[in-house]
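sorry for the late reply, my laptop died twice this morning and i had to redo everyting from scratch. anyway the thing you sent over, i finally got around to it. pasting the sequence first so we're on the same page, its 304 residues, then the predicted structure underneath. double check i copied it right bc i was rushing
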Amino acid sequence: MAVELVTGFSGTPHVTAAHAGALNAGIIGAGMYALEPSSSLTLTMSSSGSATLGTGNVVINGRHVALTTPTAVSFTNGAQGMKRNDLVCVRYAREASTSVESAAAVVVRGTPTSGTPSDPAIGSGSVIGGASVVDMPLYRVSFNGITAGTPVRVYETRGTIEGLEERIGRATDHVVSQGFTPIAGNRTGDGTAFGWIWRKWDSGVAEVWGNIVNPNDYSVTKPWGGLQEGFYMMGEVSYPFTFKEVPVETAQLFSHGQPGGCSVWPAPYRRPTTAKCGQYGITRATEGTVKSPMLAIHAVGRWK
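ok and here's the structure:
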């Protein structure tokens, strides 16, 4: 049949292992994977000649294999002066005459050598492509003489959809709340109100922007090295929320009442806290008046 409804009632048995395997391969992947949790799919050496493979679940080209109880596997003894790599595998097999399929834990023995050993050839190909024997390697056990080394895991793990959603959520941070919080009495001479614009992210990062304005004019006439500073301090205003830790803060200073421009700089006086922004003095290159100074604050920290 060229078109077949697999998930549906047809009146006769028609769903095969190949159907289920194709669906698994489409969802999980067409390779070979251990399914989470795979922490129990361990290989414990009891001697140089034997080990126990733990329980778990693997998928070989879409075919699900369950290791429901610990399984004993055996190794051929090593030889003095020779090295060898063995692979502990889960083997899928299909009997040619009956098409009966099975799975088993096997040890594929490597070729002894006095040099650097390589992994043995295993049943390759794909179940989907019709291969009758496919091996999924789980662990490599290297022999140096008669001594077996520590098993090395060689299989790949496929996570759950739930775990994938969590990883995607961490990779794509998003805003959970944002808003504008006025600063009491923070207005220019023409009545324009300023305050805090803030944003909180799901990852715990938070940032705030705020313009702190004073409608008055201030003389900057106190020498400070090669600069001049004023006696008026700006800032030390409460943030719209309390940060979990002291945020990183940057500050800029403008003469809001002088549209033509006036070069002024903020001189840090008090550092910010988790609750309030820093306090800054007014400086400029020469003596003069700063009209309606505006302190622009940007702070980034954590809210949770």
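The mean pLDDT is 89.
thats about all i looked at so far, will dig more tmrw
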